[in-house]
């Protein structure tokens, strides 16, 4: 390997990466580290700025890495992805180039995302984002629309895995009636997860709050469309802390404009970061937060420590946590 290797750490929006781990471990091995704090404007912009780098540290799915971008990076030899997977990363395209991708799985609780989802649900129930803005403007209660108590209401959970089960427990603690549905969920699994199994149609039609806790896949992309939103109560609140494309964005915007549903709380979007002129930003019955589910110090420290360990292993010729093992056969 060359004397100096160039590493780019991407999308450090909060400018915290360099104090979250001991990067001197890599510098002592001749690794030159550059941190990018802003999102890239396009594939072409990313390709131009990342062309000199041998290694990339990707923070979750903040920058998408399709084949078109991977093929424009002639010096790229190794990538680290924080977390265990990313639908926006073309690991097969990297494997064809002989570029292994290591991940940083395990080690952190899913509590940060679950807690954030519950906080967002409560914000929506009492219109707290708008209330905070009004208080700053001296308008006090003028303009606050919903005053919804959780106790006694029905919480419908789409996806009752680790995150969904936490949401179910939170709902129970607040005295809610908790129901759940997903493609593979059974009544027995639902009961074990703290919920009652119902059909998707019943969940949408009867729930006062619908909270999404599904992984994005071909099966879940566009799972909630216009017809699904139309089945929901006009007083219903939809919360999505999973992935934006699970809900048809255009259909959701129309439903909010038409007051088909009361309110939505969103932490995730089709394209991130959300632009200031996006149609969602013009609506007053949606609470928007900037994909903060995993954004806590504990997660960052785990991610970046794992990044260093993955790079050290690759530099030693024995990569670990490899997402695309076919790449090793081409190296």
UniProtKB/TrEMBL annotation:
Pfam families: 2-Hacid_dh, 2-Hacid_dh_C. Residues 119-293 form the D-isomer specific 2-hydroxyacid dehydrogenase NAD-binding domain. Coiled coil: none annotated. CDD domains: PGDH_like_1 (cd12169). Residues 19-323 form the D-isomer specific 2-hydroxyacid dehydrogenase catalytic domain. SUPFAM superfamilies: Formate/glycerate dehydrogenase catalytic domain-like, NAD(P)-binding Rossmann-fold domains. Keywords: Amino-acid biosynthesis, NAD, Oxidoreductase. Belongs to the D-isomer specific 2-hydroxyacid dehydrogenase family. This is D-2-hydroxyacid dehydrogenase family protein.
């Amino acid at each position: 390997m060359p004397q100096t290797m160039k590493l780019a750490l991407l999308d450090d929006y909060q400018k915290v990466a360099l104090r979250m781990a001991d990067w001197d471990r890599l510098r002592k091995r001749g690794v030159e580290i550059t941190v990018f704090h802003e999102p890239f404007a396009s594939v072409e912009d990313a390709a131009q700025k990342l062309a000199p780098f041998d290694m990339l540290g990707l923070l979750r799915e903040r920058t998408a890495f399709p084949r078109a971008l991977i093929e424009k990076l002639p010096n790229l030899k190794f990538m680290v992805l924080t977390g265990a997977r990313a639908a926006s990363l073309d690991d097969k395209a990297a494997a064809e180039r002989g570029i292994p991708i290591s991940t940083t799985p395990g080690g952190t609780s899913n509590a940060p995302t679950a807690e954030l989802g519950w906080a967002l649900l409560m914000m929506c129930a009492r219109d707290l984002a708008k209330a905070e803005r009004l208080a700053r403007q001296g308008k006090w209660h003028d303009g606050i629309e919903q005053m919804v108590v959780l106790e006694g209401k029905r919480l419908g959970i789409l996806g009752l895995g680790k995150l969904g089960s936490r949401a179910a427990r939170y709902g129970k603690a607040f005295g809610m009636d908790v129901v759940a549905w997903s493609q593979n969920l059974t009544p027995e699994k639902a009961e074990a997860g703290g919920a009652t199994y119902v059909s998707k149609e019943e969940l949408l039609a009867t729930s006062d709050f619908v909270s999404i806790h599904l992984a994005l896949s071909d099966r879940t992309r566009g799972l909630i469309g216009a017809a699904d939103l139309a089945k929901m109560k006009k007083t219903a609140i939809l919360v999505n802390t999973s992935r934006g494309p699970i809900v048809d964005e255009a259909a959701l915007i129309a439903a909010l404009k038409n007051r088909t549903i009361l309110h939505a709380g969103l932490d995730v979007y089709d394209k991130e970061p959300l632009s200031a002129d996006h149609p969602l930003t013009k609506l007053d019955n949606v609470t928007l937060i900037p994909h903060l589910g995993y954004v806590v110090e504990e997660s960052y420290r785990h991610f970046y420590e794992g990044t260093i360990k993955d790079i050290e292993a690759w530099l030693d010729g024995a990569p670990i946590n490899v997402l695309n093992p076919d790449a090793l056969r081409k190296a």
